[in-house]
Amino acid sequence: MNWELLFNMVVPLTIAFVAVWGAARRVDVYSALVQGAGEGLGVLIKIVPAMVALMTAVYMLRASGALEAAGALLGPVLTRLGVPPETVGLLLVRPVSGNAALGVGSELIATYGPDSAVGRTAAVMLGSTETTFYTVAVYFGAAGVKRTRYAIPAALCADAAAFLAAAWAVRWWFG
Amino acid sequence: MAMTLIWTGMVVVSVVYGLLAGNGPAVAAAAVEGAYAAVELCLGMAGIMCLWMGVMEVMKRSGLAGGLSRLLRPVLGLLYPDFKGDGETMDAISANVSANLLGLGNAATPLGIQAARRMALRSPGVASDSLCMLVVCNTASIQLIPTTVAAVRLSAGCETPFDILPAVWLASAISVGVGVLAAKFFSRVWRR
């Protein structure tokens, strides 16, 4: 069984399955697809302003070097919590930028090795979290929500839990 | 208001720290780059976004979305009690969860947005408890097969890129659990 091929085929297989299923149910698959796609464009327009605002701030924050400074402060705290301090950079960029997090994570995995404790922890952190602020901006932007109430604090709780759990899970699974 | 605080905070910290650390010019350049990159990102997303909203429309008309949500109703009904009776919203949430589980992050976003927009119709401009829950569940990754990470490990010379799966599942489960509990807790104490 070629697992990699199977994972790569998830998207086309899903699309093909939906198309065949719809056609079998006598749905006009093509016009439904085009209509839905047209609605997607409208949603996208609503997301652009939120993304411009968010990414401007994220890029500025990254360029200022403040994240590195915060990382230096956080390192010792992480060690005490059982999280490899090398992952502090990943932890800080993960909620704000998916691309940057992937970059930092790949760097860690390449530097320490994919089968090292740091490399594995970084991989699990990447796999068990999302780009929180991006998700918040996109969802609330598209829904036209201004008062976000407790969504951000609750989401950050989940992120913090994921980072701690990643380090613990790696130790549990690999011993 | 939360976003106002966070956004202003990020900008002010960048400017002040950037100036103190001598990174002022870099911050200035980044402000422009960020705005540019945002539009680029949205354009990059446009195709996938339209594609999956189209696929969702086909799923809706063929009854596939309805079947999926009947399957997931026992769990999702608990998370979104206010929308239990709203078929179309539940269909969109179900499709969003399924896409997340399959690791189709790009598909999950448009599907989740559809659910979010329907939820917001009931409380314009304000994030209801259900909408907060939806966002929290989407910020806590629940994918079964983290393909991107596996690809990174593979390219770093790892022979068994998927051997971290159980650890990822455990960490994801803990993260989602904490997120859901936090949302449920905040929904009781957050009055505004």
Note down, in words, how this protein is organized.
The complex is a heterodimer of chains A (175) and B (192). Chain A is an all-alpha fold and 175 residues long. Chain A has one domain. In chain A, α3 packs across α8, α6 runs antiparallel to α7 and α7 runs antiparallel to α9. The longest helix of chain A has 36 residues. Chain B is mainly alpha-helical. Chain B folds into 2 domains: 46 residues, no CATH class; 127 residues, no CATH class. In chain B, 79% of the residues lie in helices and 0% in strands. Chain B is globular and about 60 Å long. The N and C termini of chain B lie close together (11 Å). The chains are: A mainly alpha (175), B mainly alpha (192).
By secondary-structure content and strand pairing, the structural class of chain A works out as mainly alpha
What would you call the quaternary organization? heterodimer
Query: Into how many domains do the coordinates of chain B divide?
Result: 2
Largest interface: A-B, 101 and 106 residues
Mean of residue pLDDT of chain A? 89
- Total number of beta strands of chain B: 0
Domains of chain A, number: 1
Could you say which structural class the secondary elements and strand pairing of chain B correspond to? mainly alpha
